[in-house]
Specification:
binds adenosine-5'-diphosphate, alpha+beta, single chain, 9 helices, Heat Shock Protein 90, five-stranded mixed β-sheet, Beta-Lactamase, six-stranded antiparallel β-sheet, 11 strands, 3 domains, binds magnesium ion, 386 residues
């Protein structure tokens, strides 16, 4: 843009100008002008010496200080023209302040013939051109600064995003580790309850049975008491088995996920009365960690149906195709508005999503008030091969 302006101005006959011009940009804090661009032939010596001109120095420096247009008849006779160069040819000058409103943005210099006939309207014309140039320069500088600012901001955002991703990744790993530990712990407690407690209770039961056969037990009160105790012990054995199974159903470890899903569905039917149909291929086997994750998600969907759905029927399908495993749990209950599920209060769902993420998978919910709910959990075959 500046080149175009200088070319046009130096071609303007009435100004008696030569084909040489240049623009300094102002640094008001350092009180110095810096050569930004030139038009026409200049010697290397000139370009080097004129790189910086302090305010007040020579013709251009004077204009920077005063902010006034300056005209000079000849570089040799004008004492304000302090700078000298080798092979300097005689010339005069228009030095034009580039001011945007009152702020000096730079200085434009034009070479003229010596002792030119100063054009009648030159001052006014040149000053307004100076203002236009200054406005354009300022706009460009602002844009550049804005651009730098934006780039800076973008790089900060990118950095933060990267940090956050790392943190999220770490949190996920921690979560996965905690899940593993909890699962192990559940397994251990389940085994202990089942084996130790179960065995002790069975031993008590045998003793009671022996006691019942002794002479003293012929006494009806004693016999009745012993029977009561035996019933109680039998119930307690049942209870420990139930607790053990709830902690970690043995069927999951012994028979795999398809059987465990069916077992869980039967438990659910017995305790809720809701009909639960399971469609699953028994040959589908997964790695133990994957089975546990899917099984826990399934339990959470059933818990939600018990607590929220008021359903009569539930259909469960578990299948795989080339790429993905898919668990679908569909109920015919009251449904809900899925838009309301994004809040932090849906902790059950959040837990399901986290479990699915551990398997590189996802959880989708299709539902509408009055239309039942479908929960689809899918995860890629590739990273979860058994
Ligand atoms: N099968 C379902 N039928 C109807 N509403 C459901 C069902 N599952 C979940 N919801 C709704 O979604 C909400 C979020 O579920 P969840 O995150 O498990 O939280 P919580 O069960 O602790 O309320 C529930 O409060 C309930 O309103
Ligand atoms: Mg829940």
């Amino acid at each position: 843009m500046l080149h175009q302006v200088m070319k046009t101005l130096t071609g303007f006959q009435e100004l008696d100008v030569e084909a040489k011009a240049g623009v300094f940009l102002a640094d008001p804090e350092g009180k110095v002008l810096r050569l930004y661009t030139t038009y026409g032939e200049f010697t290397d010596e000139f370009l080097e010496k004129e790189r910086e001109v302090p305010y007040g120095d020579c013709l251009c420096g004077r204009v920077a200080e005063s902010g006034q247009l300056l005209m000079s008849d000849s570089c040799f006779s004008d004492t304000r023209h302090e700078r000298r160069f080798q092979n300097m040819t005689p010339h005069g000058h228009y030095i034009i302040p580039l001011k945007s409103r009152d702020k000096l943005v730079g200085v434009l210099f034009l070479y003229t013939e010596t002792h030119p006939t100063w054009y009648r309207f030159s001052q006014e014309v040149l000053l307004s051109i100076g203002r236009l140039i200054a406005g354009a320069i300022e706009r460009n500088l602002n844009e550049e600064e804005l651009m730098r600012y934006r780039q800076n901001l973008e790089s900060i955002v990118a950095e933060r995003t990267c940090e956050l991703t790392g943190m999220r990744e770490q949190l996920r790993k921690l979560n996965q580790r905690m899940e593993d530990v909890r699962e192990e712990e559940k397994k251990r407690i389940s085994r202990e309850v089942h084996d130790q407690l179960g065995q002790s209770l069975t031993a008590i039961n045998l003793d009671l049975s022996w006691l019942d056969k002794q002479d003293g037990a012929a006494e009806p009160v004693i016999h009745e008491k012993i029977q009561g105790m035996r019933d109680l012990v039998q119930d307690t054995i049942g209870l420990t088995q139930k607790i053990a199974a709830e902690l970690r159903p043995p069927v999951l470890d012994l028979m795999g996920l398809p059987s465990a899903l069916e077992w869980q569905a039967r438990q659910f039917e017995q305790s809720t009365g809701v009909v639960c149909r399971v469609k699953v291929n028994r040959d589908l086997q997964l790695a133990s960690g994957v089975s546990t994750g899917v099984f826990r998600i399934f339990q959470e969907t059933l818990t939600n149906i018990t607590r929220h759905a008021e359903a009569k029927n539930v259909v469960v399908t578990f299948s795989r195709n080339q790429e993905a495993w898919e668990l679908i749990v569909k109920d015919d209950g009251r449904g809900m508005d899925p838009a309301k599920l994004s809040g932090a209060s849906s902790l059950g769902l959040l837990g399901m999503r986290e479990r699915a993420l551990i398997l590189n998978g996802s959880v989708e919910i299709e539902s509408a008030p009055g239309c039942g709910t479908l929960v689809r959990v899918s995860f890629p075959v590739k990273s979860n091969e058994s």
